[in-house]
Amino acid sequence: MLRITALALALALTTTFAHAAATDPAPGGPYKTDPSHSSFNWSFDHSGLSHYTARFTGVDARLDWKPEKPEASTLLVTIDPLSVRTDYPWPEKVNFDAEIGGDESFLAAKPITFVSRKIHVTGNKTGTVEGLLTLRGETHPATLDVTFNGSMAEHPMMGVPKIGFSATGSIRRSEWGLDFAIPELGDIVTFAIETQMVPADYSFQ
User: Fold this and answer.
1) Which of 13, 153, 178, 201 fits a 20 to 30 Å CA distance from 28?
2) What is the pLDDT of residue 3?
3) Can you give the residue ranges of the Lipid/polyisoprenoid-binding YceI-like domain (predicted)?
4) pLDDT per residue over 14-27, tens digit each?
């Protein structure tokens, strides 16, 4: 009985999402991050043995979306440095997240922002976003490689428009004065972003 119920539910959800995917795309306008369907992971070389990986949980992206002319869109991303999560295995000994987020040798508890300056459409669903990244109080250019995953005029479960993107990029952290333990710890930091966005006036409450 449980198997039949699960199968029926799966078929219903598949039909619902297939119908939603076939509807009109999301309209243009202001959008914001859906934090329950977004992630920001970053990594760097660690002693040549692995790529140390962590993430930010406090990420707020604001997009003025222009679907008919994506290059005219604008993006502002704000990240809380104290939202870093390293999954350090002995938090009772060292509050490693607080150290990375707040210590002057690392992120110094200073807000991280990315402001778009120019968007280039490079393919049917790909593009680059050039902007200014402020980290540790210093501002320098940075670029995101972005894939537009699609949109829905009405998401079947949330009942509002949604748009989705994947993005990758990298920076040389020493350019922002974050030169701790180079070269033992890599200078190049790479990041991977997944996000779904909802209208800016949507309430998650």
Assistant:
1) 13
2) 56
3) 30-198
4) 444 444 454 689 99
In this structure, are residues 78 and 60 in contact, taking their beta carbons and an 8 Å threshold? yes
Given the structure tokens 């670029």, which residue do they identify?
A: 143
- How many other C-beta atoms lie within 10 A of the C-beta of residue 142? 20
What does the alpha-carbon distance between residue 77 and residue 139 come to, in Å, rounded to a whole number? 14
Q: Identify whether the C-beta of residue 131 lies closer than 8 Å to the C-beta of residue 75.
A: yes
What residue ranges define each of the domains in the chain, with the CATH number in brackets?
25-199 (2.40.128.110)
Residue 123 CA to residue 72 CA, distance in Å, equals 16
Residues belonging to the chain: 205
Question: Among residues 45, 40, 50, 41, which one has the least CA distance to residue 187?
Answer: 45
Burial (CB count <10 Å: 0-12, 13-18, 19+), residue 21? exposed
Angstrom CA distances, 200 to 28, 31, 33, 134, 188, stand at 11, 4, 8, 23, 33
153 close to 171: Cβ distance less than 8 angstroms? no
Q: What is the pTM of this model?
A: 0.87
At 96, give phi and psi (nearest 5°).
-65, -35
Tokens of 103: 């210590």
Separation of CA 59 from chain center: 7
